[in-house]
Amino acid sequence: MTQPIPIRRDHLGIALDLAAGNVPVLPLRAGKGPFGNCPDCANNACGGRPNMKTPGPCQCPRPCHAWAAATTDPQVLASPAWATAWRDAGVVGYHPGGTGLTVVDLDNADAVAWAHKALPATRTVPTTRGEHWIYRGAMRSVNGVREGVDLKSTMAYARWLGPGTGTMADLPDAVRALAVKEPSPVRPVIAVPAPVGGGECRHRTPAYLERGIAMAEQRITEACSEVHTTVYRAFLAVLSAHGRCGCLTDAHVARLFAAAQAKGESPRHCTDAWANARARLGL
Predict the structure, then answer these.
(1) What is d(CA 253, CA 25) in angstroms, rounded to the nearest whole number?
(2) Distance between CA atoms of 131 and 112, rounded to whole angstroms?
(3) By the 8 A CB rule, do 164 and 132 touch?
(4) pLDDT tens digits for 90-138?
């Protein structure tokens, strides 16, 4: 007979207390990553990103989908399906946006010093390397808004490190403005192989190519979540149609990169996604 799995009551107890206060919670590994213990989602079968930090489309109840797994339901939190996760958890995580909060994650001393100069005082929580500044109000989550500063709110999770100190302030415009990032100038150098056999490219009809680029731009721009994955798939679609026939120019690629950067992607992420798509197609 299988022995029952012991649950770490310290983490579960904290989680249940937070859930009672309408804070959606989930277990996190010691390295701050969410669990991926659902058999239906093994090896990323559900479609989430490989590191499982963004949710896939499945609706299973286990804590395998990052912020989307966070819940205030005590029956789910204390269910056998979550027992292994609580046993192995390194910390309790929570979904700030789900309870109407925004966490300004300051990852080092320089970032903390900047916040003291640039942002209004609010509740603060010490972290391993810096501080969490917590504001009342939800917004879009964006990583890397400046050196050592991430914004965690909707579609994101944060570590619960205690209630903190100080009076919580309303989310200021200064924080909201951090999420509005101007696209960086993009000057990609892309070597596109010539058509097989050196023949005339069958896709040189301007309207066909323009429609393909415009559709990829629209797909990226309209992404509400899974931006990394959406950018990669859009790049893959464009390269699938045009990567071998010589249609693409630096101007076309710059349009795609600009659309991605407008959604918060860095130039490095764009370059990596483009390179990965080319490698997938053997270009």
Answers:
(1) 40
(2) 7
(3) yes
(4) 889 999 998 999 999 999 999 999 999 999 999 999 998 999 999 999 9
Tell me the Cα Rg of the chain: 22
Chain centroid offset of residue 133 CA? 19
Relative to beta strand 169-170, strand 123-126 is: unpaired
Which secondary-structure segment (H or E) carries 251?
A: helix 250-262
The residue type at 160: W
The residue assigned the tokens 């320089």 is: 110
Q: Which two tokens stand for residue 80?
A: 């056998």
Cβ neighbours of residue 157 closer than 8 Å, sequence gap 6 or more: 26, 28, 34, 66, 67, 70, 93, 94, 95, 96
DSSP state of 189: -
Phi-psi region of 34 (alpha: psi -120 to 50; beta: other; left: phi over 0): beta
d(CA 220, CA 230): 6
List pLDDT tens digits, range 181-233.
554 454 444 444 444 444 455 665 667 778 888 888 888 887 776 777 888 88
49-101 pLDDT per residue, tens: 444 444 544 556 566 667 778 889 999 888 887 888 888 888 899 999 989 99
Distance spanning both ends of the chain, measured CA to CA = 54
